[in-house]
DNA sequence: CCCTTTTCACCTAGGTGGTAAGAT
DNA sequence: ATCTTACCACCTAGGTGAAAAGGG
């Protein structure tokens, strides 16, 4: 069901401090609107924020326990993509112009995403800790948790702590709630102390420049910082 | 010695996690330059930041222990002041045009601060927690700790959590390092678990509009956000 | 008369996609 | 031919003191 995440490993065997944790994706309808077109996220050398911003509303935490919140990004497949017409000369050979399910149904009278060979070597697998971590469950549940400081880069040598992704590859953002276990030997319970959430509607293609013009237009229409590129203002 | 704070109560009887704590005021020469003229800080209904910003470099903390950092503001005397000439009609009667030591030696051919009666009822005594609190000693000592989110207001009914001060009254900013004691019954050791610092060069008069024109000029010359009011730029 | 409030032009700081040049 | 980079105008967001208006 939209807005609710798959939770990866089952909740059986989880610490009671995380097993009831739940996360609702905020701005779900906007994410879905992008996802229908095939979301693209810009990556730059200096690092670029995501839009929409990944935001969740949490519940089911122990108000008095400490938690760390973090995100990582999982490659959705082992392919590299290119934007263009069907009869490409990509190394991957001919492939259907529309893939299933990701590069959504959008090859009507325009270009679309085509597989173009195997994925490049995986970028260093980094994680982004929410800057308020660690904090009490009560604090996290009080209001929406926003990952608006998270930035994406294509610079393999980045030393700003940004998330490193390969351009022209597809990713699934993943969100983790980690209970800070005060016990000694807590490492031995590490696998019980976290819970992960993946929202399929937040998957995206990393790009250095937008390819699908409809994505560009939706970004301009919905991101306040891009207001300078709007022309007619039919209200909304 | 300038740049080092008086520490209030002695270090005897303090918890070992705070008794070696030390704080060095940053931008000390700028603070002293303001202090020589008689520092004024604007207070507004919405809240105004301090300039210079209160910043310290910490040392002597236990890198692995948790600390909370906070500030409060102590009235420097029980007087209210007015800006003007010596033969005032203030309720306080005639007072020397230059007080000792605060309203520094600055009554040459202009106005100066004069005592004008007893202080107004004290404003609600609030404290400002550094937003990164709590954090490990190692984190606090890693870099300069800046209280740039702290705002001053004269609104007695303020509900934004800002520091409430009486305009035309003098204050001494005070900085506290509090060890977060994990022991049960830690309340009973509360008086041992903190250490306080006062830097005399940071004392100031709260005002709703600048009175001493030299203060205005120094603010304009040194605060980047006031660059719009600079004219000649002789470099610096 | 003295102090406070409101509004404003002018900044800092940083997030947008467009564009043209650069790289492979 | 395709993707990447650097720079730019144009925004959001918010910190300045000046100036004029308001209040006791």
What report would you give on this structure?
The structure is a homodimer of 236-residue chains. Chain A is mainly beta. Chain A has one domain: Transcription factor, T-box (Immunoglobulin-like, Sandwich). Chain A contains 3 helices and 15 strands. In chain A, strands 2, 5, 8, 9, 13, 14 and 15 form a 7-stranded mixed sheet that branches. In chain A, strands 1-4-10 form a 3-stranded antiparallel sheet. In chain A, strands 3-11-12 form a 3-stranded mixed sheet, with no helix packed on it. Chain A is globular, with a radius of gyration of 19 Å. The chains hardly touch.
Low-pLDDT runs of 5+ residues of chain A are: 88-105
Query: If you average the pLDDT of chain A, what whole number results?
Result: 88
Q: What is the third-level CATH name, the topology of chain A?
A: Immunoglobulin-like
Order of helices and strands of chain A: EHEEEEEEEEHEEEEEEH
CATH class of chain A, anyone? Mainly Beta
Oligomeric status of the shown chains?
homodimer
The figure for the number of domains of chain A is 1
Largest sheet of chain A: 7 strands, mixed
Number of helices of chain A: 3
What amount of the residues of chain A lies in strands? 25-35%
Q: Any idea what the radius of gyration of chain A is?
A: 19 Å
Corresponding CATH architecture of chain A? Sandwich
Give the overall silhouette of chain A: globular
Helix content of chain A: 10-25%
Determine the structural class of chain A based on helices, strands and strand pairing.
mainly beta
CATH homology-level superfamily of chain A: Transcription factor, T-box
* Total number of beta strands of chain A: 15
Distance between the termini of chain A: 26 Å
């Amino acid at each position: 069901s939209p807005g609710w995440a798959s939770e990866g490993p089952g909740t059986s065997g989880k610490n009671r401090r995380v097993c009831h944790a739940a996360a609702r994706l905020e701005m779900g309808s906007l994410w879905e609107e992008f996802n229908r077109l095939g979301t693209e996220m810009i990556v730059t050398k200096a690092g670029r924020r995501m839009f929409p911003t990944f935001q969740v509303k949490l519940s089911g935490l122990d108000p008095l326990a400490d938690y760390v919140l973090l995100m990582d990004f999982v490659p959705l497949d082992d392919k590299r993509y290119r934007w263009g017409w069907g009869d490409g000369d990509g190394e991957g050979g001919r492939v259907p112009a529309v893939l299933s399910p990701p590069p959504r149904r959008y090859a009507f009278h325009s270009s679309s995403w085509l597989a173009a060979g195997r994925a490049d070597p995986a970028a260093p697998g980094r994680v982004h800790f929410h800057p308020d971590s660690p904090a009490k469950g009560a604090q996290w549940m009080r209001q929406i948790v926003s990952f608006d400081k998270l930035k994406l880069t294509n610079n393999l040598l980045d030393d700003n702590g940004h998330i490193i992704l390969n351009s022209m590859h597809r990713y699934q953002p993943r969100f983790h709630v980690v209970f800070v276990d005060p016990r000694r030997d807590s490492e031995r319970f590490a696998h019980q102390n976290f819970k992960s959430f993946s929202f399929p509607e937040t998957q995206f293609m990393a790009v250095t420049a937008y390819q699908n013009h409809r994505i560009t237009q939706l970004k301009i229409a919905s991101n306040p910082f891009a207001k300078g590129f709007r022309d007619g203002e039919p209200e909304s």
